[in-house]
Request: fold
Amino acid sequence: MKTFFFLFFMMSSLFGESIIMPSSSYKASGNVTDIFVNDSKLYAATSQGTVDIFNMKNHKIIKTLHVEKIKDFMGDTIDAKIYSIDISGNNLLILSQAEQGYRKVYINKDGKNELIIPSSLCLSIAKAKFLDENTILLALLGDELVSYNIKKRAENWRIQVGSSKFSSFALNESKQRVAVADESGEIKIIATKNGSLIKKLSGQNLDNVFQVDYKNNFIATAGEDRRAVVYDLNTNAAFYKLSNFLIYSVGLSPSGAEVGYSSDENNNITVFNRMTKAVIGKFGKNKMTPTNILFLNEKEFFVSSDDKTINFYQIK
Reply:
């Protein structure tokens, strides 16, 4: 009997799914909310009001940028959480928390913050990204999109995307189109030039979509319904991978050939091939809920979570 259990244990270990560990890690100054790679540097926004800039060769912090602290509802001074970051040229876009539930938008240039959108405009902005050096795309919690002119300090256009709460958006490579996700489970593709609706994608996610990515005419979603959906805009085909846990994060490789998604309660990331649908590997050692899956190329990717650690993985 003992021999039987020993053999059973050995066979289970042999054929069980192995977890791939990160090849390296980065330690941010706070819990990471957003990450971005530019010019061989990794930028990490945190909930502690900082943006850490890492040298990707030695994994050390080159510089840490700060936004001003705010007062909470009790009147206490606290760190202003940073929700998203982006880069255009030498300009770093920072979306941060402000008083009374509103947001501020800064552009940091040469280490100095210039306030572009003050809290006095009373905007509940969930995400902000550059369209070009003079235009920002803003997503409001009320499922609105706003194109904002930096020089004029004025809106180019504003649209109501849907009637649900906004979740996520992702721009395509040319930044001419944006895929918007919300609690409805439907994905809307919007033209960033004028805010016109190009296409709706539905019938795959049945509930709230937490996150979306958009690469090489493919769109991937992370759903509360435990579905990681992939849409092929070239053929109008779609399919999904079903997980046994809520899927909080998703990422596509630059070509759209590889798809990564948070796949279980242990915060592991499953990567599969979009064409064959075959699992390439499961990647672990993420301590908290994943917040971002960012592919550097077809074989390497970063994962951040509600933690200070950013893990870097290599697909073999």
